[in-house]
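ok so heres the complex, three chains, lmk if somethin looks off
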Amino acid sequence: MKSYRKELWFNVPTRRAFINITPRVMEALRESGIQEGLCLVNAMHITASVFINDDESGLHRDYEDWLEDLAPHEPIEQYSHNRTGEDNADAHLKRQVMGREVIVAITEGRLDFGPWEQIFYGEFDGRRRKRVLVKIIGE
Amino acid sequence: MKSYRKELWFNVPTRRAFINITPRVMEALRESGIQEGLCLVNAMHITASVFINDDESGLHRDYEDWLEDLAPHEPIEQYSHNRTGEDNADAHLKRQVMGREVIVAITEGRLDFGPWEQIFYGEFDGRRRKRVLVKIIGE
Amino acid sequence: MKSYRKELWFNVPTRRAFINITPRVMEALRESGIQEGLCLVNAMHITASVFINDDESGLHRDYEDWLEDLAPHEPIEQYSHNRTGEDNADAHLKRQVMGREVIVAITEGRLDFGPWEQIFYGEFDGRRRKRVLVKIIGE
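and the predicted structre for the whole thing:
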């Protein structure tokens, strides 16, 4: 069994953003040399997500509006967590809806994807350096 | 390390449905011959889910009503994504709540399940051919 | 390839609770002797979650309030599932938001975590014995 590990770094200039990281995960897979196995891609921070969906800007606006409706940023006093001096409680909630991680099958050295699957980093509390972990096991 | 890959195909005649795919995943596991490992089951389409919960029709009605309340299909104009000519933005949202994939432990050649766990395909934009990927690694 | 399996048992005295299980997962990892691989941690019951987030009591109150708002326990008659004699339909819904499972990378014999990641058992229908499965594969 082989394993490969890589960190992807982000410094999103806005509070929230969705970034297509598929090319960077594909690059990690090539570096690993693994042909058959599983690829874990997870946010290493608890106010961010990794998820798979469509690379369509209208949909990303819909996600933004919908998540803001489900877990509004303001008023920040509505959240107990923000009494610690934080203002990011909503980001911890939004990340649960979108998820922490994805697992992608590796088949014949490729990400084994359906026709429209793309991997996204979902940032909900940006403006600082944060990381995503790629861990691939197989052979 | 062994690996096994199988696609399960669906053509759901309605827009939305929940289908118990546990027997089909068990069949894939038998075909694989794998005794110890991990089994990934994921929707290959971004308007569908794979999730684990109870095979109880009342609960499935509750999921349907609840998801429609969280992310209504209509009015379709409320979603930016639908300006591309689609009418399935709500399906992309519903799928995030229910999830893209599950990972099931394989122990002694069986799906290592608790007493009521069953695997479902959740269709949110049916009436066409769509796929689920089963990928098993182990030995 | 090595594999290791362990069940963690819970008997939460209240209906709902969040319990930090990171030390118990770390103990299972030590017992496994696995240095590189993947660790699956999943609820074996369909009214409970395993998720990764912050060990901060204010945030846990926020999760409790938010989930109760998204999927209220009462009135219990609002759910078709509860006509079976159950009163836990809301727990099946809450668990979908928080998720069934997490996968954690194992690197150099450690849970490969970001700075604040902790693993929680989320109970939404307690007051009875329930289990979490830890399955580790690697070498």
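quick notes: Helices of chain C lie at 22-32, 57-70, 89-98. thats all i got rn
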